Amino acid sequence: MNRILVTGSTGTLGRPVIALLHRLGADVRGLSRHPSHSSPADSPALPADGPLPAAGPRTFRGDLATGEGLEQALAGMEAVVHCASDTRRMGRTDLQATRNLLDAAGRAGHPYILFISIVGVDRIPYPYYRVKLRAEALIEAYGGGILRATQFHDFVLGGARLAARLPIALAPDVDVQPISTTTVAARIADLLDDPRPGRAPDLGGPEVLHTPDVFRSYLTAAGSHRPVLPIRLPGATFGAFRRGAHLTPHRSPGPHWSDFLQNHFPGTPTTP
Ligand SMILES: NC(=O)c1ccc[n+]([C@@H]2O[C@H](COP(=O)([O-])OP(=O)(O)OC[C@H]3O[C@@H](n4cnc5c(N)ncnc54)[C@H](OP(=O)(O)O)[C@@H]3O)[C@@H](O)[C@H]2O)c1
Question: Region Disordered: start and end of each range (predicted)?
Fold first, then answer.
């Protein structure tokens, strides 16, 4: 598939996805409420208006929650990679956004849609995951594809940074299987080469690590001597994470968490 719209193209995953598809020669465009936030490094020449540039993806202005701008963004598209999510508000607008996207796609010639979801959304009663699961059902009814991935390196780093704001860093006493967004982007590109409806095999990071160890490795790399305290919480959600419902045996070869840290903090030892 060559003409591809990436929703959430300014996000953690959307940026490497749009950069990779562009490098692979696709006629790719992004969708964002704020096209000016697109990274020039990842997506050169990104005017919010005006004619398509000869080189570089264009980011279309649009709001999935209202449906504004979707008709223009979808015009002529063969496929959509749906990475957008209201992540800061636990997916509050995600169902309406997905409905709006599917309705607009139906009017625009029914392009293939690949939805990005999370491993374990059907096993963990976390409110955001419940929204993702319901969005998956909408995608399935449309005939789209679904790729579930484990937690992104950047997301885990965000958690570690947040924990490090306290004098003692509190770390959930659960495992994590962090994955590089470049690995997820590469799988997305493969799936677009052979578009199928329904769920693709889950995609997980190369190793399962204990979150307190991950936070310690971040603190060491960042030069901090803060202690890390593993914490357990009551409830079904934490219990499901404790049982590893967010992990998958489908492991990608790399990069590893240590490679990611090395990129952010040169001098950190990498995985041999
Ligand atoms: N983070 C993880 O560890 C992880 C793991 C597995 C799967 N996932 C899934 O992967 C997807 C991407 O996650 P991410 O971490 O890249 O998210 P992110 O960095 O928070 O980016 C969210 C993107 O969604 C866009 N967006 C939000 N609301 C929108 C709206 N109403 N209209 C148009 N665009 C909207 C934002 O664009 P603007 O603000 O520019 O409009 C932004 O580009 C999500 O579906 C997430 O559930 C995440």
Answer: 31-60, 245-272
For the stretch 63-110, pLDDT in tens is 999 999 999 999 999 999 999 999 999 999 999 999 999 999 999 999
Q: Give the burial class of 36: count Cβ atoms within 10 A of its Cβ; 0-12 exposed, 13-18 middle, 19 or more buried.
A: exposed
Q: Is 188 helix (H, G, I), strand (E, B) or coil?
A: helix
Q: Indicate which atom in ligand 1 lies nearest the CA of residue 8.
A: 43
pLDDT for 269: 65
The residue whose CA is least distant from atom 35 of ligand 1 is: 84
What local confidence, expressed as pLDDT, does residue 271 receive?
60
Tokens 């979150």: give the residue: 211
- Give the separation between CA 58 and CA 14, rounded to whole angstroms: 13
Structure tokens at 39: 């990274």
Name the residue at shortest CA distance from atom 36 of ligand 1: 8
- What domains appear along the chain, each with residue ranges and CATH number? 3-42+54-264 (3.40.50.720)
Tell me how far apart the alpha carbons of residues 9 and 29 are, in angstroms, rounded to a whole number.
8
Could you tell me the pLDDT band of residue 268, with boundaries at 50, 70 and 90? confident
Structure tokens at 224: 């901090």
Cα 82 to averaged position of ligand 1 atoms, centre (Å): 9
Give the pLDDT confidence of 30-73 residue by residue, as tens digits. 999 998 765 443 333 333 333 334 457 999 999 999 999 999 99
**What is the reported pLDDT for 102?**
98
Please measure the distance between the N-terminal and C-terminal CA atoms of the chain and give it in whole angstroms: 37
- Determine the distance separating the centroid of ligand 1 and the alpha carbon of 223, expressed in angstroms: 30
